[in-house]
Amino acid sequence: MSRLKVYGAVGGAVALVLIWPLAVGKIGQDAITKLVDNANSSAVSAKVVSYDRGYLSSVVKTEFTVKDPALIQQLKADDIPTSFYVTSDITHGLYSLTAHSKLDDSSKLPLTMDSTTQLNGSTKYKIDLGNWQVTSNNSKEKFTVSTSPSYLSGSIAMSGEATYKLNVPSIELDFASKEKLLISNLTGEGQGKRESGFWLGSHTLKVGKVNADDEKGNSVFSLEGAQYKFNSKLTEKQTRVESHNVLSVEKVKTTDGGNVTDLVFDATLGDIDKQSFGDLMALFQNNQELSQADLEKAIPYVNTLFSKGFYLSIDDFSMKVGEGKFKSDWKFTIPAGTDNVTHNPAVIMTALKGHINSDFSNELVKEYPFMKQTIDGALASKMVQQTQDGYELKAKIEQGNVVFEGGQKIPLMSLFLSGMIQQQSHNHAH
Asked: How much is the pTM?
């Protein structure tokens, strides 16, 4: 009897080993199908066209179709397909599936992807782009885009949590006019998860250098050491969203002799109501063009967003221009209880609170004489104060007015109407 039990156990183990690849294939198909479904967005649709599942391997064909009307028009103008078919050769492992995927027409886009999908659906991937060159068929201004071998790698969990790393050594645009744009050392990394229509997590993108040449080969614009950092998170018991953005550039040069260094723009959008913000994001992402019905649907979301309150702060906006310096920080707050803004937008003006601080160095004013007349007028009206190093502007926003440190008070509505008139004059002039 004991010998029969041993034989039975061995037989069961052998049977399990024999059927395991089939189980792995079935579990893998479910996981891969779900991953493809999750790749659908307002800009691109994705679907599995065929899944030929074998014993130890499978072959999957997937179709990706561009849905964005503007992008479709551009792709057609450049004779680039709007639908792409990808063939994946999959091997069934003991605990995972490995896949090598490539475009069916790789001559136009040498793109491949190698991935490993665990049985729980989590996937690690690396996408490689070989040397690529494409020429635009735009009759107005033809250009050629060339890239060096590049890659994008990362992971996607079944929970939706994702990570990525990007490396593009160079992108070059050559125009028929002989003008040229070169972007060098584009890198990026990030992690996070899309939730309620927006991204929670962090990104960092860096560009080593950007250079634009005119038709004679002379540099008309160059930029070095650019970096963009983004971080978004939930606060106040997961009911509010805070988005922090920092753009920094080491050096910018232009053909007219402009020389900007140490540029920093550090901004935060915070205390945003998660639910109404998510509803608005979903509405805009799911509709390329908003209809009247969509706009009416957005009204309660906008009202709730303002009613719950939020703020925008520019914590640091600074730069060096030649020998001169400029530095500023602002904060604008919409307090909770700012109700029915869609019916009465003017309520925003009276509810808005905040401050504006700006500093201009003496060297900056000397370098740009046109600023002197404006500053002299602001000094006379006590909106600007003179300091040992230059000039400073300090003001508070309260009760519908901008109140300067020197006592001058200007209604926000008059500034808004003045800006509208100037914008209309500018549009008519062009």
From this structure: 0.83
